[in-house]
Amino acid sequence: RELVAGFDENDGIESRFFFWFGAMMTGLFILTIASTSVLPYIRDLGMGFVALSFAGIMLVRYKAVADKFYEAIDWDLLGFFAALFVVINVMEHALVLQLIGTGLSTIIDAPPDIAAAGLLAVSALFSSVTDNIPLAAMLAKILQAREMAGTDVPEQLWWSVIFGANLGGNLTPIGSASTLVAVTIIHKYKISLSFAGFIRKALPYALVHIALAIIYVLLFF
After folding, report:
1. How far is CA 143 from the centre of its chain?
2. pLDDT tens-digit readout, 134-150
3. How confident is the model over 148-192, as pLDDT tens digits?
4. What span, in angstroms and rounded, lies between the C-alpha atoms of 111 and 119?
5. Alpha-carbon distance 217 to 203, whole Å?
6. Any idea where the Citrate transporter-like domain is (predicted)?
7. At a CB cut-off of 8 Å and minimum separation 6, what does 177 contact?
8. Domain boundaries, the chain
9. Torsion of CA 62, 63, 68, 71, to 10 degrees
Protein backbone atom coordinates (compact mmCIF):
# COMPACT_ATOMS: atom_id res chain seq x y z
CA ARG A 1 0.00 0.00 0.00
CA GLU A 2 2.85 2.38 0.85
CA LEU A 3 4.50 1.61 -2.49
CA VAL A 4 1.31 2.46 -4.39
CA ALA A 5 0.78 5.60 -2.29
CA GLY A 6 4.29 6.70 -3.22
CA PHE A 7 3.52 6.73 -6.94
CA ASP A 8 3.09 10.13 -8.56
CA GLU A 9 0.64 9.85 -11.45
CA ASN A 10 2.13 12.97 -13.02
CA ASP A 11 5.52 11.31 -13.56
CA GLY A 12 4.32 9.57 -16.73
CA ILE A 13 3.05 12.77 -18.35
CA GLU A 14 5.77 14.17 -20.59
CA SER A 15 3.59 16.95 -22.00
CA ARG A 16 0.51 18.35 -20.28
CA PHE A 17 -0.77 19.75 -23.57
CA PHE A 18 -0.47 16.33 -25.22
CA PHE A 19 -2.22 14.74 -22.24
CA TRP A 20 -5.19 17.12 -22.23
CA PHE A 21 -5.43 17.20 -26.03
CA GLY A 22 -5.46 13.40 -26.09
CA ALA A 23 -8.08 13.27 -23.32
CA MET A 24 -10.25 15.80 -25.15
CA MET A 25 -9.98 13.92 -28.45
CA THR A 26 -10.78 10.62 -26.72
CA GLY A 27 -13.91 12.11 -25.13
CA LEU A 28 -14.94 13.69 -28.43
CA PHE A 29 -14.33 10.40 -30.24
CA ILE A 30 -16.56 8.47 -27.81
CA LEU A 31 -19.27 11.14 -28.09
CA THR A 32 -19.10 11.09 -31.90
CA ILE A 33 -19.22 7.29 -32.07
CA ALA A 34 -22.21 7.24 -29.70
CA SER A 35 -24.10 9.78 -31.81
CA THR A 36 -23.04 8.62 -35.29
CA SER A 37 -26.53 7.31 -36.09
CA VAL A 38 -28.14 10.73 -35.53
CA LEU A 39 -25.49 13.13 -36.85
CA PRO A 40 -26.18 14.40 -40.37
CA TYR A 41 -23.62 13.42 -43.06
CA ILE A 42 -21.60 11.35 -40.55
CA ARG A 43 -24.36 8.74 -40.21
CA ASP A 44 -24.03 8.06 -43.94
CA LEU A 45 -20.27 7.53 -43.62
CA GLY A 46 -20.35 5.17 -40.65
CA MET A 47 -18.25 4.55 -37.55
CA GLY A 48 -15.25 3.35 -39.55
CA PHE A 49 -14.90 6.78 -41.12
CA VAL A 50 -15.12 8.41 -37.67
CA ALA A 51 -12.39 6.16 -36.25
CA LEU A 52 -10.04 6.72 -39.21
CA SER A 53 -10.68 10.48 -39.12
CA PHE A 54 -9.74 10.80 -35.45
CA ALA A 55 -6.68 8.59 -35.97
CA GLY A 56 -5.63 10.77 -38.91
CA ILE A 57 -6.05 13.96 -36.89
CA MET A 58 -3.85 12.63 -34.09
CA LEU A 59 -1.17 11.40 -36.49
CA VAL A 60 -1.07 14.71 -38.37
CA ARG A 61 -1.01 16.72 -35.13
CA TYR A 62 1.85 14.64 -33.71
CA LYS A 63 3.55 13.54 -36.93
CA ALA A 64 6.98 14.21 -35.39
CA VAL A 65 6.50 11.35 -32.94
CA ALA A 66 4.27 9.16 -35.12
CA ASP A 67 6.99 6.51 -35.26
CA LYS A 68 6.40 5.84 -31.55
CA PHE A 69 2.74 5.20 -32.27
CA TYR A 70 3.65 2.71 -35.00
CA GLU A 71 6.08 0.91 -32.69
CA ALA A 72 3.35 0.49 -30.05
CA ILE A 73 0.90 -1.11 -32.50
CA ASP A 74 0.54 -4.87 -32.27
CA TRP A 75 0.79 -5.68 -35.98
CA ASP A 76 0.33 -9.42 -35.39
CA LEU A 77 -3.03 -8.74 -33.77
CA LEU A 78 -4.14 -6.47 -36.60
CA GLY A 79 -3.12 -9.12 -39.12
CA PHE A 80 -5.10 -11.74 -37.22
CA PHE A 81 -8.22 -9.56 -37.19
CA ALA A 82 -7.86 -8.85 -40.91
CA ALA A 83 -7.59 -12.58 -41.65
CA LEU A 84 -10.48 -13.37 -39.28
CA PHE A 85 -12.83 -10.95 -41.02
CA VAL A 86 -11.79 -12.35 -44.41
CA VAL A 87 -12.75 -15.83 -43.18
CA ILE A 88 -16.05 -14.52 -41.79
CA ASN A 89 -16.77 -12.76 -45.08
CA VAL A 90 -16.07 -15.97 -46.99
CA MET A 91 -18.42 -17.83 -44.63
CA GLU A 92 -21.09 -15.22 -45.31
CA HIS A 93 -20.72 -15.50 -49.10
CA ALA A 94 -20.62 -19.29 -48.86
CA LEU A 95 -23.99 -19.05 -47.06
CA VAL A 96 -22.58 -20.73 -43.94
CA LEU A 97 -23.94 -17.95 -41.73
CA GLN A 98 -27.26 -18.15 -43.55
CA LEU A 99 -27.34 -21.89 -42.81
CA ILE A 100 -26.76 -21.14 -39.13
CA GLY A 101 -29.54 -18.57 -39.25
CA THR A 102 -31.92 -21.04 -40.87
CA GLY A 103 -31.22 -23.52 -38.11
CA LEU A 104 -31.92 -20.85 -35.50
CA SER A 105 -35.25 -20.06 -37.17
CA THR A 106 -36.63 -23.37 -35.89
CA ILE A 107 -35.77 -22.27 -32.35
CA ILE A 108 -37.49 -18.92 -32.89
CA ASP A 109 -40.72 -20.73 -33.81
CA ALA A 110 -40.83 -22.47 -30.41
CA PRO A 111 -42.98 -21.18 -27.50
CA PRO A 112 -41.81 -17.68 -26.35
CA ASP A 113 -39.81 -18.60 -23.24
CA ILE A 114 -38.21 -21.66 -24.87
CA ALA A 115 -37.41 -19.60 -27.97
CA ALA A 116 -35.78 -16.82 -25.92
CA ALA A 117 -33.67 -19.19 -23.81
CA GLY A 118 -32.74 -21.37 -26.78
CA LEU A 119 -31.84 -18.44 -29.03
CA LEU A 120 -29.63 -16.90 -26.34
CA ALA A 121 -27.80 -20.16 -25.64
CA VAL A 122 -27.30 -21.16 -29.28
CA SER A 123 -26.26 -17.67 -30.42
CA ALA A 124 -23.74 -17.63 -27.55
CA LEU A 125 -22.36 -20.97 -28.75
CA PHE A 126 -21.96 -19.79 -32.35
CA SER A 127 -20.59 -16.43 -31.22
CA SER A 128 -17.72 -18.21 -29.48
CA VAL A 129 -16.35 -19.52 -32.80
CA THR A 130 -17.48 -16.80 -35.22
CA ASP A 131 -17.14 -13.08 -34.80
CA ASN A 132 -20.17 -11.72 -32.94
CA ILE A 133 -20.72 -8.73 -35.25
CA PRO A 134 -21.72 -10.59 -38.46
CA LEU A 135 -23.58 -13.20 -36.38
CA ALA A 136 -25.63 -10.52 -34.60
CA ALA A 137 -26.26 -8.73 -37.91
CA MET A 138 -27.49 -11.97 -39.48
CA LEU A 139 -29.81 -12.73 -36.55
CA ALA A 140 -31.13 -9.16 -36.64
CA LYS A 141 -31.94 -9.59 -40.34
CA ILE A 142 -33.86 -12.79 -39.57
CA LEU A 143 -35.92 -11.08 -36.86
CA GLN A 144 -36.52 -8.01 -39.05
CA ALA A 145 -37.66 -10.21 -41.94
CA ARG A 146 -40.18 -11.90 -39.66
CA GLU A 147 -41.50 -8.51 -38.52
CA MET A 148 -41.81 -7.31 -42.12
CA ALA A 149 -43.73 -10.49 -42.93
CA GLY A 150 -46.25 -9.56 -40.24
CA THR A 151 -45.04 -12.03 -37.62
CA ASP A 152 -44.86 -10.67 -34.09
CA VAL A 153 -41.30 -10.79 -32.71
CA PRO A 154 -41.23 -10.57 -28.89
CA GLU A 155 -38.76 -8.18 -27.27
CA GLN A 156 -37.31 -11.23 -25.51
CA LEU A 157 -35.78 -12.45 -28.77
CA TRP A 158 -33.98 -9.18 -29.46
CA TRP A 159 -32.43 -9.23 -25.99
CA SER A 160 -31.54 -12.89 -26.44
CA VAL A 161 -29.54 -11.98 -29.54
CA ILE A 162 -27.80 -9.11 -27.70
CA PHE A 163 -26.86 -11.16 -24.65
CA GLY A 164 -26.01 -14.31 -26.58
CA ALA A 165 -23.78 -12.62 -29.17
CA ASN A 166 -21.90 -10.69 -26.49
CA LEU A 167 -21.53 -13.28 -23.74
CA GLY A 168 -20.64 -16.07 -26.16
CA GLY A 169 -17.40 -14.26 -26.89
CA ASN A 170 -16.20 -15.15 -23.38
CA LEU A 171 -16.13 -18.88 -24.14
CA THR A 172 -13.04 -18.85 -26.40
CA PRO A 173 -10.07 -16.50 -26.91
CA ILE A 174 -11.23 -15.71 -30.47
CA GLY A 175 -14.82 -14.95 -29.49
CA SER A 176 -14.35 -11.24 -28.86
CA ALA A 177 -11.84 -8.54 -29.70
CA SER A 178 -11.18 -7.59 -26.06
CA THR A 179 -10.45 -11.20 -25.08
CA LEU A 180 -8.11 -11.62 -28.02
CA VAL A 181 -6.22 -8.46 -27.08
CA ALA A 182 -5.88 -9.70 -23.49
CA VAL A 183 -4.59 -13.11 -24.62
CA THR A 184 -2.10 -11.43 -26.97
CA ILE A 185 -0.74 -9.34 -24.09
CA ILE A 186 -0.51 -12.47 -21.92
CA HIS A 187 1.58 -14.22 -24.59
CA LYS A 188 3.73 -11.11 -25.04
CA TYR A 189 4.77 -11.40 -21.40
CA LYS A 190 5.62 -15.11 -21.90
CA ILE A 191 2.76 -16.35 -19.73
CA SER A 192 1.65 -19.80 -20.85
CA LEU A 193 -2.02 -19.95 -21.83
CA SER A 194 -3.16 -22.32 -24.55
CA PHE A 195 -6.46 -22.23 -26.43
CA ALA A 196 -7.78 -25.20 -24.44
CA GLY A 197 -6.37 -23.74 -21.22
CA PHE A 198 -8.30 -20.53 -21.78
CA ILE A 199 -11.54 -22.44 -22.34
CA ARG A 200 -10.99 -24.49 -19.16
CA LYS A 201 -10.57 -21.35 -17.09
CA ALA A 202 -13.24 -19.24 -18.79
CA LEU A 203 -15.97 -21.85 -19.29
CA PRO A 204 -17.41 -21.86 -15.72
CA TYR A 205 -17.67 -18.06 -15.61
CA ALA A 206 -19.07 -17.82 -19.13
CA LEU A 207 -21.73 -20.44 -18.39
CA VAL A 208 -22.76 -18.57 -15.22
CA HIS A 209 -23.06 -15.32 -17.20
CA ILE A 210 -25.14 -17.00 -19.90
CA ALA A 211 -27.39 -18.69 -17.31
CA LEU A 212 -27.93 -15.38 -15.50
CA ALA A 213 -28.73 -13.69 -18.82
CA ILE A 214 -31.32 -16.37 -19.63
CA ILE A 215 -32.95 -15.92 -16.21
CA TYR A 216 -32.93 -12.13 -16.66
CA VAL A 217 -34.55 -12.32 -20.11
CA LEU A 218 -37.22 -14.76 -18.92
CA LEU A 219 -38.08 -12.74 -15.81
CA PHE A 220 -38.01 -9.19 -17.10
CA PHE A 221 -39.16 -9.41 -20.75
Report:
1. 21
2. 777 777 777 777 777 77
3. 777 777 788 888 888 888 888 888 887 777 777 788 788 778 888
4. 12
5. 21
6. 13-164
7. 81
8. 1-72, 74-221
9. 130
